[in-house]
Amino acid sequence: MKIQNITYSVPWNLFLITAGSIILSIGLKSILIPHGMIMGGFSGLGLLLFYSSKVMTPGLWYLVLNVPVFIVGWTFISRRFLLYSLYGTLVVTLAIDLVGFEIAVKDHWLAALAGGTLVGTGAGIIFRSLGSAGGNDIISIILNQKFGIRIGTYIFLFNFVLFFFSFSSLDTDIILYSMATSYISSQVLESCMALFNQRKMVIIISEAPREIAKQIMKRLKRGATFLKGQGAYTGNDKNILLTVVNTYQIKRIEEIVFNIDPEAFLITENTFNVLGKGFSKRKVY
Predict the structure, then answer these.
(1) DSSP symbol at 216
(2) CA–CA separation, 131 vs 93, rounded Å?
(3) What does pTM read for this prediction?
(4) Hey, where are the domains in the chain?
(5) 136-147 and 151-166 helices, crossing angle to 10°
(6) 199-271: what fold?
(7) Residue 141 contacts by C-beta under 8 Å, 6 or more apart in sequence?
(8) How do residues 71-83 score in pLDDT, each as one tens digit?
(9) How far apart are CA 30 and CA 48, in angstroms?
(10) Which of 48, 66, 114, 248 has fewest C-beta within 10 Å?
(11) Nearest to 136 by CA among 148, 152, 147, 120
(12) In this predicted model, what pLDDT tens digit does every residue of 81-131 receive, in sequence order?
């Protein structure tokens, strides 16, 4: 089975959601909850309701909050995405309640760092599947598809309101630690999302573009494209070479370019994601 096809297989997606949910729950239950911290999103809202009411458990609050979201999402989002997300919600609910151990971290800053890292890693693994852990993920997708609201904008506003109302029931220092935890988890999540997708876009300006392109295709087995350009000073027409390679191929690109044309101009740019033949396949939810 091709690697690109594995990403659409049911066992692989269930594995990602299960593993991510367990890691997320360990960070939440074994580190953040013992320190009285909350997270952003529905998990944070569930913790806030748990701290305030002492009714049910954080996992059950998370499940209850997701019920109306799934009812609305059934109309607006694909059934496959919702079914995977329903599974993710159930696994997170069970994992939060079943994790019964505490990781002995005494310092609040270390707890914020460790907890945020685990939660971000778990969420990042879940996001690599065709589903989600429910809650804000579903709402953000609905708002983005129907009203063009950016996912990041909605999540930021939701978390801002959540942390604002937390001041009435939680200690100010704990809220600030929680905000730091939320920021750390978001950065780790982004790193997990880009871990296997990041590529290098290379732009080459040279007097021998065709020879360089020929060597790139022959030695690196990568495609290349000519962009029409013009020298600003000379006014001469130029073929500007564009290609995309893996990170470990950058040094080989440099060797090819400068061995052919020592006066060449090479620009390397990081890319978050590259879709197409030879790289990642577009994920359809």
Answers:
(1) I
(2) 16
(3) 0.71
(4) 3-194, 199-271
(5) 130
(6) Alpha-Beta Plaits (3.30.70)
(7) 77, 81, 151, 285
(8) 888 777 778 888 8
(9) 17
(10) 248
(11) 152
(12) 888 988 988 898 888 888 888 898 889 999 999 999 999 899 888 888 888
